[in-house]
Amino acid sequence: MVEKGGSVWLLLPAAASLVLFVWLLTLHPAASGRVYAAYGGVYVLTALLWLRIVDGVKLSLWDWSGAMIALTGMLIIVLGWGRA
User: What is the pTM of this model?
Assistant: First the structure.
């Protein structure tokens, strides 16, 4: 569903930028999957904060709980680097 009058064609540069981002992660000397997974936890919280602050949407307990679970997963991944 396209909202706010945006074109479906905007998905193409969005998808291309995501592919570029993931490819750039593979160039990192650390395991790129771990880096991407850790980034995901931060992304979830940032996206919800954007939704709240910029778009003015009231977040539910489910939103905040999901963000905390994602951040906890990211923390576990980061703390586990080099320990396995």
Answer: 0.62
